[in-house]
Amino acid sequence: MRWLWPWFLVLLPLLGVLAFWRRRAGTGRPATLGLSTVGWLPSRARDRTRIVLVALYGLGIALVTVALARPQRGFRENELVGRGVDIVLALDVSMSMEAVDFQPDNRLAVAKTVAQQFVASRPRDRMGLVIFAGTAATQCPLTLQHEVLRDLIGRVNFGMVKDGTAIGTGLATAINRLRGSKAKSRVVILLTDGENNQGSIDPLTAAELARALGVRVYTIGVGTTGIVPVPQEDPVLGVRYVPGLMSIDEPTLKAIARTTGGQYFRAKDAAGLSAVYRQIDRMEKSDVRSSAFSEWRDRGPSLLVLAVAALGLAFALSLSAWARFP
Prior knowledge:
alpha/beta; 2 domains
């Protein structure tokens, strides 16, 4: 709080002295209130009326005096300067992600949870989501509405696109979401547990496209290789787990990362996957700075409104039946 014209506040004690002087001057003669004709009322009613009206008139005059001093209240606001990192998550939703080597959940469930945590940790970055299996689809374009993005990640499930593993198509779709980005850093985080076996775009061709556009790609190979339990629906026994042979094309994932200036990571369990995202988070820092400024708003007009209300109420009460009857 500050006062633009503080010298008006000197009037407040002068008003108090004036009120005291008038009270002393009125001692020994019939008391009257110049602003209201109430002298004909009975003594008790007159005293009650005089006290209330004097209080209202005094409050109104005091508020006018304070308003003339121009009290101002400051508001501190923050402004973001610079741009964050634009990141697209490319998530494998092929049926092999049902493998339950990330106990107690399957690979996709853990990948979704960790991705949601990663999104929550970067509130200043625009982020998007692409899913892929045999084909690819954009689930969320680049956005700062992270609650919406986290909800969409939670809704991802098997069967949303045809089965298979089209790593090149998934990567190309994610890169396309970044084509118009003006961010200082543009990133794709591609997570898969398999080998490219679908799609018309070769993964290394997609990597060259990313490099040409200045998009850095971090690749993550999830899950263990070899024999892994995979759920299978049995019409008689319900869901049962059968052994499945799993493999990851690590050379291709490493080549994608190397071509684009990114890095390849291996995650064999939930803790390892969380550690990978934390490492990527440290590597991709947002260039967003916060600057603060203050704005001062005048409270004088509001006080004048209150002053008018107090004076108006006093005047109305002086003319009302309340002032005429005990």
